[in-house]
Amino acid sequence: MDILDKLVELAQITGSVNVQCRFQENWYVRQEPKRTQGVAHIITGGEGYLKIDGEEEIRLLKAGDVVFFPRIVGHVISSREACDNVDDAPDWEQSGVFTLKKRGAQGKALNMFCALFEYDRKADLIDSLPETVHVGMAHTALDSLVGMLKYEAEQAEKGSATVVNALSSVLLVLLMRTYLNQEEKTIHIGTLNGWYHPRLRGVVQAVLAAPEKAWSIQDMVSVVNVSRAQLMRLFKQQIGVSPHAFVNSIRLQQAAVLLKRSADSILSVALSVGFQSETHFGKVFKKQYGISPGQYRKDGNQLESEV
Fold first, then answer.
1. Distance between CA atoms of 265 and 68, rounded to whole angstroms?
2. Which residues contact 146 (CB under 8 A, 6 or more apart)?
3. What pLDDT is recorded for position 301?
């Protein structure tokens, strides 16, 4: 089982690459914080400056850079290093499947695609990532994908919306892969961090593959060949919860996927992920998600019908 594939599935990612930017002369764009969404900025030409709320550092962005905010923090991208030219906001128009943002007509240009992502509110994968992920796309599969985005933006072929929206999911996985393949990376305490720990990888992978199993501490100990005390300590240090809480969390995330994607009864969903009764499942689900399984399913169906 591939850890990234599984965590992407549990995250229930949806997205769209819906904004293209062409900026010249003086320009300024501001993104307000939104913790329930993620955004990626893909620089395909030129350069600009990035100022993130709460940070002193000003970052130079240039062609080939991709900046991803897993849970959007407020930030500015600007032609000025001070990032203070708020009156230079761009105009916009609809251009095929993209909202085209434009500013200026002469001088060096910054060309950029922007992708917006939404996830399940308890997406473990997203919580494992730092506030900002900054990667280069040179010599990676990201480069080929961006080439396809450019083609769709320029040619306006039939079915472009379907192609572009499908590319958004691929884009996010490639972003994750590129970042995780870097030698220098930050991974917060959570499932992904546990998987990277050599003593925990086996049990994390086993639980992800079969969360419905009646996992006991002894079962987990036998998978990774450590003492009970070591197992408890490693889980707290690397994943942030007890082994029992980890199993329950994965079960609930799997149940959330089934509630959205299947027509199975709530009882069937509960039993399929390892809970012994609908009542117990409902209580545990509401504690983690803040709403009942039935309301979660209803909310998901409403969102799909509104798209």
1. 37
2. 42, 44, 113, 137
3. 54
